[in-house]
Amino acid sequence: MGRALRNMFVAGCVLLWLIPLYLLIVNALTPAGGYTGTPDWAPRGFAILDNLSIAWSEAGIGQSFLVSLLYSVVCGSVAVLVAAMAAFAVVVLPVPRPAFWFWLIYSGTLFPLQMFLAPLFGLYADANLYDTRLGLMLVYAAWAVPFAFFLIRNQMTTMPPEVTEAAMLDGASFRRIFWRIHVPLMSSGLGAAFIFQFTAVWNDLLLGITLSRSPEVQPVMAALTTLNSAYGSSGPPVILAGALIVSVPTLLVFLLFRGLFLRGVTAIAR
Amino acid sequence: MSETLSAAGPIRVKRRIPTRTPGQASGAATARGRLGSPAGSLVWAAPALAFVGVLLVYPFFRSVYGSLFEDNGFTSEFIGLDNYVRLAEDPILGRSLINTVMWVAGTLLLPVVAGLLIAVATHRMRLGNLAQLVIVLPYAISGASTAVLWKFMLTSDGAVNQVLGAVGLGSLAQPWLLEWPQNTVSLIVAGTWQATGINVVLFTIGLRAIPRDIVEAAHLDGVSGWSMFRHITLPQLRAMTVVVVGMAIVNSLKAFDLIWVLTQGGPSRSSETLALTMYREAFRLFHVGYGSAVALVLSVIVVAASWLYLRRQMPGARD
């Protein structure tokens, strides 16, 4: 009795979660011009490649896709490296008042993004960074640092200090200890932090629409939003195809690195 | 799993971040000689401090200061606390606050409870992993894509109304996004579809960490079903619940992209939350100082809520 109830509950949830995904795929298959105004429940034609190519080239998702890939990879890596160095300083090195530095860096995640936007806009306008790729990369890297720092620091504190002490007795320099001991031993933790920050930068909308305007600078979520507000001209199948395209990288990363992701989640959750 | 969870004990107590590792503590006396100058080691933290300081901490304080000005992007004039007075009198603020509270309550009710139930139901179930994967998939999709998809489903001739018509409940069909409060509720449901997955993952991690002998001992004592869940599972999941609920509170307060893409806060600002009010005031209407005031109110709420919550919950989470 209990088992049957449980199976029904799980089956119901799976169905509820699958229906939107099913609709997304089926309607992205509909030819762009052939959309009737109401959602299709069965495939009508197989125009997904056409829709993808319209979304990619005509609607400008493609350009933003590549730019966003640049932002996510570069800013994710920079943030993880910078955060790992800071974690190394706070956990391993004899920094005075490590708790203060911890909170200072970590405070970047506490406040809502809205709190930084208006002054950032002013700062960027003055420094000619508004609507430039460099400007967005700087802010994405800065935004990704605190949380990566939090994850990496958590994992670094679980490393036995004897390892560092032994290396120091052998006369290794900080730089050597960091690159030869901490980075290799923490590679999975650093990987998990990178995945988190890659996803965060990829999925950002707010910074993208605030600090950029032109298509060659805009990140992909901003491009998708623009496409969505132009609903009438391009038609739902194209927009859904666009939503599919922009979901591919995070879905791939998620499915490929599921184990690493789970370890990362465990690291936040503990 | 239980090893890592207990090894990380101090970290759960967020108020008391351990200020020194065992290595630092044992070598404190000689560390100065062996490790070089303390100030020199700050060089390692310098890039992080520069990024965070220039692009996050400085703008934060600049925003606090800017909220005391009437600033339209071209001219600015010191007006003291007038922005806050205006904010308190703004009729939009009431709706915006109600929506924000609805988001917090809805996110605590739907994704957290659904996540818990699904995690418990799929735990040690045949094909349970597959079911979990389906529910986690939307979590990998961005808020903007989720919004695009749900807009397609929620418009007046969208999929939801189609289904209602098909099963003979056509009378329940309605313009989901056009009237308050069902537009905010619809947005929360769309958010639930996306966010439940991560809670399932977190609760599953928590379930795996429950020592087997406790469950077996309870079984021997004849405990099962609901009382097992109520008296064994739920208390053992407490540490994880603290994390999930804490994240839900903060994320629901900050929710932006889903609402912005689905309704832009409309129609006539009826689905706006504080996060959207700030964006609209500062970047659509160019009330920069006023927008900063909204952002500060939002920040105070976010920080106060998480601080109060963690303060109450953290000490008990140690066991």
- CATH first level of the largest domain in chain A: which class? Mainly Alpha
**Share of β-strand residues of chain B:** under 5%
Strand percentage of chain A, roughly?
under 5%
Q: Portion of residues in helices of chain B? A: over 70%
Description:
The complex is a heterodimer of chains A (about 270) and B (about 325). Chain A has about 270 residues and is mostly helical. Chain A is built from 14 helices and no strands. Chain A starts with a helix and ends with a helix. The mean pLDDT of chain A is about 85. By secondary structure, chain B is mainly α. Chain B has a domain of about 220 residues: MetI-like (MetI-like fold). Chain B is about 70% helix and about 0% strand. Chain B has 18 helices and 2 strands. Chain B has a two-stranded antiparallel sheet. The N terminus of chain B is likely disordered. Classes of the chains: A mainly alpha (about 270), B mainly alpha (about 325). The interface between A and B is large, with 104 and 110 residues. Chain A: Its main location: membrane.
Question: In short, what is this structure?
Answer:
The complex is a heterodimer of chains A (270) and B (319). With 270 residues, chain A is mostly helical.
Write the layout of secondary structure elements.
The complex is a heterodimer of chains A (about 270) and B (about 325).
Chain A: H1 2-29, H2 48-58, H3 61-91, H4 98-110, H5 114-126, H6 133-156, H7 161-169, H8 174-185, H9 187-203, H10 206-211, H11 220-229, H12 231-234, H13 236-256, H14 258-269
Chain B: H1 2-7, H2 9-12, H3 22-26, H4 28-35, H5 38-41, H6 46-66, E1 69-71, E2 76-78, H7 82-89, H8 91-122, H9 128-140, H10 143-154, H11 159-166, H12 182-208, H13 212-220, H14 225-236, H15 238-254, H16 257-262, H17 274-284, H18 288-313
Antiparallel strand pairs in B: 1-2
Helix pairs in contact in B: 7-18, 8-9, 8-12, 8-15, 9-12, 10-12, 12-15, 15-18, 17-18
